[in-house]
Amino acid sequence: MLLAVVLFIVGLVLLIKGGDWFVDGSTGIAHRFHVPELLIGATVVSIGTTLPEVMVSATSAVSGHGEIAYGNALGSIICNTALISAITVAVRPSKVDRKAFRTPVIFFFTAFALYAIVAYFFGYFYKQVGLLLLAIFLVYMFVVVRQALDSPKKSEAAPEEDEDEDDTALAKEIGLLVIGAVLIAIGARLLVDNGTIIAEGLGVPESVIALTFVALGTSLPELVTAITSLAKGHGALSLGNIIGANLFNLVLVSGVSVSLSPFAIPSGKTIAGMNASLVVDIPVALCVMLLLTVPALVRGKLSRIQGILLLLIYAAFCVFQFVG
User: How many Å is the Cα radius of gyration of the chain?
Assistant: First the structure.
């Protein structure tokens, strides 16, 4: 068990560092070829910070651990919203650009509606569902890229560099990209394999480990972004990253894992004879996103009470997973 815990932590570290290097390398290459910065943020960075969840869920699904794939995606949404963004909002509430948030919020709740319908009426995520989620992801990316290209562009004067230095920098960026991807793949495998061992050792369902420890671990890139944004006084930037990551958890993370290996809704825990995931997990994910986004879209700003309520909900959710 001790070895499994150590390897689990090593997997988390590899995921975090791998994701960091992947984003650094990909954004560096994108800048080098003069891709607009807004476009980089809407595509490369967003996907890069979600890669840990993609790899963990895909690896879990393919290896027959659908509970981890399911719990990681759903748990990451809850963790991102009720813990990471809640800390930012509770410490330093900020104003919200309603126009900027409207698109990802609309896409998120559209995808969530599909996700919930499949969960409640079928109880099984078929390959067609995964493909449909991926189609929503592609449509969202098209819309965001189109908006980015249509937005006013700021001219940036690129500093002149020596050709040898330029080639060295490019090689370094490609190296970061490749090494980052490798570390993410290795970290995901360590996380899934040892998360399963820990779950068995603690006598709790794999979905509980996925909804809590695995979800928190794969959400650490978003946590780092939130803390950095908070320190620099950019709370709204953190909120935008969280909403984008939550959308990707539904349409990209779930889409990839379900397309590779369909699985049923976890049924290891029940409440009054009903599947706990349908009674608690999905409703909590919906509740925290509504609590975070609706007031922001209506009032154009966040309040400290929102952050406090979200943190209380997350604490209660975690207690339920291990005690309830």
Answer: 20
- CB neighbours (10 Å) of residue 265? 20
Find the mean pLDDT for residues 21-39: 67
pLDDT one-digit tens code per residue, 253-292: 889 989 988 888 877 677 877 888 899 999 999 999 999 9
Count of the separate structural domains present in the chain: 1
Burial 90-129 (b: 16+ CB within 10 A, else e): bebbbebeeeebebbbebbbbbbebbeebbeeeeebeeeb
CATH of the domain at 319: 1.20.1420.30
Give the residue from 28, 69, 322 showing the smallest Cα distance to 188: 69
Could you tell me if residue 127 is inside a domain? yes
- Which pLDDT tens digit goes with each residue over 158-182? 455 556 667 788 888 888 878 877 8
**Of 233, 229, 240, 235, which is closest to residue 99 (Cα–Cα)?**
240
**What type of residue sits at position 35?**
V
CB contact at 8 A, 175 and 18? no
Continuous H helices in the chain:
2-32, 37-40, 46-62, 66-79, 86-91, 98-121, 127-150, 163-202, 206-209, 215-218, 220-231, 235-248, 254-260, 276, 282-299, 304-323
Is the full-model pTM beyond 0.90? no
Residue 11 lies in a domain: yes
Beta bridge partners of 123: none
Contacts for 304 with CB less than 8 Å, ≥ 6 apart: 89, 90, 93
2: which 2 tokens? 């001790």
Is residue 76 domain-resident?
Answer: yes
Residue that wins the pLDDT comparison between 230 and 275? 275
Give φ, ψ of 124 to 5 degrees: -150, 135
The answer to whether 175 touches 201, Cβ cutoff 8 Å, is no
Structural domain for 279, as ranges? 2-151+167-323
